[in-house]
Write a structure and sequence with these properties.
Helix content is 27%, strand content 22%. The protein has 9 helices and 11 strands.
Length: 274
């Protein structure tokens, strides 16, 4: 594992935006549905581009309706790259489609890469800053943020080991009864050392309930290889809501509008901000 000093490391991002979102009852790509008057994807891109993060490059993985997604970014800035996932074989496969953007081995060795979902517009820049800070302070190969919520239905569960450390992420469809009772969940906020991530995607297997290649299995591979995985309980439960249908879209729209109006003063994790 590389040991490039913090001050020489760069920050980048891969954002997953290829899904159709069939429950949205629309032909519009899921990430193009508007939240607080903007496509939800644009809020996620802003979170990784603004402030000290200033991720470059940002790779957006597109699929369904990709022309609509690409055309929503006027001017196509140099830091923004679109990569196509077709067919769609899972989150791990999606990220592997972005590998050419990170092909240079020297750049990989000094890059930390966020992996986020384009349908998560409630992500806070401060949460990502806390995640990156822990990641670099500990020298971890990967760091993920978690949340503890009352109703974990539908989310991947964070399974801890006997000492309370991270063991693995268990997806809802693959969880047994005991695992489904776990309330600490995975809201899909990750940061990896780029070389640690891309060097392991080819080892992913799809022997799971969905028959897909999960990015969450990379954490297990890293642990098996003796590399560090850190966990930050940094996501407020009110920020975890995912968007899968019009009702949830309206709910997230209301949350984000209240935040923008200054009526949401939640401090996230280690000093998170809106």
């Amino acid at each position: 594992m590389n040991t490039v000093p913090h001050e020489r490391r760069t920050t980048s991002a891969v954002i997953l935006a290829a899904g159709r979102g069939t429950r949205m009852q629309s032909d519009l790509p899921k990430v193009m549905h508007r939240v607080a008057d903007r496509p939800m994807l644009h809020w996620v891109v802003d979170a990784v581009r603004e402030g000290p993060l200033a991720c470059d490059p940002v790779a957006v993985v597109v699929g369904h309706g990709r022309a609509h997604v690409e055309d929503s970014f006027e001017g196509r800035p140099e830091w923004l790259h679109f990569v196509v996932q077709e067919p769609q074989l899972g989150t791990g496969h999606a990220i592997d489609m972005a590998a050419p953007v990170f092909a240079d081995p020297d750049a990989r060795a000094r890059t930390d890469v966020f992996v986020l979902c384009g349908d998560g517009p409630l992500v806070r820049r401060g949460t990502l800053e806390a995640l990156l800070r822990r990641h670099r302070e500990t020298g971890a190969a990967a760091t993920l943020a978690t949340a503890t919520i009352e109703d974990p239905e539908g989310y991947g569960r964070i399974q801890r080991d006997a000492g309370g450390g991270f063991d693995r992420i268990v997806e809802q469809k693959d969880a047994d009864e005991d695992q489904r009772s776990i309330r600490e969940v995975n809201p899909s906020y990750y940061v990896f050392r780029a070389d640690a991530l891309f060097d392991r995607l080819s080892r992913l297997k799809n022997d799971n309930a969905n028959g897909e290649y999960y990015i969450t299995d990379v954490f297990t591979l890293l642990r098996e290889d003796g590399l560090g995985v850190e966990v930050v309980d940094a996501v407020d439960p009110s920020d975890v809501l995912s968007i899968n249908d019009p009702t949830q879209l309206a709910e997230v729209d209301g949350i984000l509008r209240r935040r923008l109006a200054g009526r949401d003063h939640i401090a996230i994790g280690e000093g998170g901000t809106a």
